[in-house]
TrEMBL record:
This is TIGR01906 family membrane protein. It comes from Candidatus Cerribacteria bacterium 'Amazon FNV 2010 28 9'. The keyword Membrane applies. Keywords: Membrane, Transmembrane, Transmembrane helix. It comes from the Bacteria. The chain crosses the membrane at residues 7-31, 85-106, 118-151, 171-195. The keyword Transmembrane applies.
Amino acid sequence: MQRIVYTLAYVSIGLWWLFFCVSRLAFIQLLQNITFQFERPSVNADVVVEATQRAYAYSTAPQGGGSDIFFTADELSHLRDVEQIYSFVRLLLGVAAVASLSLLLVSVPKQKIDLRALFPAGIFLCGCALVAFLFVLFFSISFPLFHMIFFPQGNWQFPDSSLLIQLFPDLFWQLYSVSLMVGMLGVGILCFLLYRYWYE
């Protein structure tokens, strides 16, 4: 039981770091270096920049108002649904990370910390990286399936002419998934290296 608790603690800390550091950094970098480079003859470059920033704001924090100068009502509805999921994941990982750090801080002085749990934690994180790899490999299936699971209300499908689709094309999400895969793989390998350092 203790091994499981410490494994979950290491995994929680790793996922929290990925969510708040790697995930945000990759998202912003991809927006700046990939999404803005797509040719959109019908969309002014200044509009692209401001609309993307507003989309990011809508999907990461509650925003007031029922209309927007850039997005349709359906697009706004989807962005707000994304924000609810984002907020839930942020809260869940935040609470888990705080609890995990508290456990480790209490355990270190008593020398009861279980570093052997780093090995199963590494396996779990590498498994998550494999899932991300399969997500990208079968993107045409996994992306719609993901939306059908997390957005069963069905407000996630838009025409190709939709500004939201132009701002966040499939390539954007594929590269974003790859960045998460690399991050999870890196943290998983770090867990293996730390385990080997202490026990081999």
